[in-house]
Amino acid sequence: MARKRKKTIITCAITGAIHTPTMSEALPFTAEDIADQAIEAAKAGASILHLHARNPENGSVSIAPDHFKAFLPVIKQATDAVVNVSTGGSLVNTMEERIAPAKWASPEMCSLNMGSMNFSFHPIADRIKEFRYDWEEAYIRNSEGYIFRNTFADIRFVANELGGTHGVKFEHECYDVGHLYNLKFCMDAGLFKAPVFIQFIFGILGGIGPDIDNLIFMKRTADRLFGDDYQWSVLGAGGAQMPFATTASQMGGNLRVGLEDSLMIARGQLAKSNAEQVTKIRRIVEDLGCEVATPDEAREMLYLKGGDRVAF
User: Does the keyword Transferase apply (predicted)?
Assistant: First the structure.
């Protein structure tokens, strides 16, 4: 008898901390728009919603708990999707500041970057002639000098503060092969219990490039390090988004789309919403024979604590 194929989890990353309002009118930054787009993405088939906050006045990146409080309860009341609160925040904040929203919310999931790295998007600035808000150009250009800090001490701090105290399951974001080894070390040290959920990330300047050979290598490395003790997903930034999501689904993995990772729906065409991206990738993976997981199925696959145990 043929082995039953597992279902595919779609994560949607709604707004992020890279793109700015000038880049796309569709990028949400008010609480109302973030909530509306998250709810519509869930209706379209996203079982996990990866969430950042923005300053509603000008769209700048915010890690203020009050900005999360303005949309998380709205999303919770309107959908049963799993809420994943980012701990990435801004590249210039301390780890204590970055996890403050998650400590308030006690969500089912949080992202957790598995290593320090150069993290830059400064070339974008040269392609924009006029910015909508004063903060945008300097924010983009200054990323040339950013080091995104995620030391072993930082990782242990987050694991203890959110994993142990709040029962959070982590989306372990791995931007390069070395990050997989960092995660393995942390598991051996007892910081994280199997099965872990790994997000392979391709196409960020400072991380591994968006080549299919790299995806295969990352997957083989993870298999060797973690065996059956992990679930995996793929995030392809920019133009790599849809091709990498499609390939991941056909390799038996899960996938992430959303305006945080790409503003496009097709080459040269801006997406109208997060839901449009979810709808497109859902159609592709279902046409290719995959079945999309519901939120409760994602909870079971990832061993989550349940939506009734969050604080919002």
Answer: yes
